[in-house]
Amino acid sequence: MKILVGVKRVIDYNVKVRVKADGTGVETANVKMSMNPFDEIGVEEAVRLKEKGIATEIVAVSMGPAAAQETIRTALAMGADRGILVQTDAELQPLAVAKLFKALVAKESPQLVILGKQAIDDDCNQTGQMLAALLGWAQGTFASKVAPADGRLEVTREVDGGLETLSIALPAVVTTDLRLNEPRYASLPNIMKAKKKPIETLTPDALGVDPAPRLVTLKVAEPAKRLAGVKVKDVAELVDKLKNEAKVI
Ligand code: AMP
Questions:
Q1: End-to-end Cα distance, the chain
Q2: Burial classification of residue 44, based on how many CB atoms lie within 10 Å of its CB (0-12 exposed, 13-18 middle, 19 or more buried)
Q3: What percentage of the chain carries pLDDT values higher than 90?
């Protein structure tokens, strides 16, 4: 089974994101960037499927600026076999990303595409679902367990009422949830080995996809600042404030 895994380059989850002064977006200059955490989980799952002898090849795909190569290298150091960079400086919205993945599926013929359930920068949670719809493939979203069985895939999902297990036909799109696995750290020898693994660079044009945004961002604003807390001297004062100031009891 050949697997395509999406690895998006996003602002590192430890960085405090700052909104640009003109409200057009967030500051990305001189900010630490990393692989989207849900995509690390996707790479880990693909590598585990390869270690179990189920996957035969793992192709890590990133779409974005040239620097997204670093994200692909991280995936290669974790165990992916090769990478594809779809290079563009254009803003990529989920529909464009899904169309680019569809074109790559036509070129690579994988049996499984693993994406994160959401990218932590745009929080869209759309790409996997859009890709499955464009391909007419089955989808197992928010996966907390993935198990191949009888040429199909059993995908366990965390839903409101507990755990739901679906049996989906292959080829399929799976999106990862937090509890699917704990991604490994790449070892130094594997980081060195990853430098020799191939990365193919393509463009949206070469894949026949127009990535122009369909949605317009009107404004990006910081959340309202929280007011500072106050210390109360006893329970009576706390109850009084909750009752008369906050009016919550
Ligand atoms: P989103 O729908 O934007 O929340 O993204 C969901 C998932 O789609 C991510 O976790 C990635 O696996 C994949 N994805 C989105 N954008 C990109 C990108 N530019 N490059 C590679 N994968 C992406």
A1: 58
A2: buried
A3: 90
Ligand 1 close to Cβ of residue 62 (< 6 A): yes
- Return the pLDDT at 102: 98
How remote is the CA of residue 102 from the centroid of ligand 1, in Å?
Answer: 13
Mean pLDDT of the region 75-91: 97
Please report the atom of ligand 1 found closest to the CA of residue 68. Answer: 20
DSSP string, 184-231: PPPPHHHHHHHTTS-EEEE-TTTTT-----SS------PPPPPPPP--
The pLDDT score that the predictor gives to residue 227 is 85
The CATH number of 2-224, from 3.20.20.70, 3.40.50.200, 3.40.47.10, 3.40.50.620, is 3.40.50.620
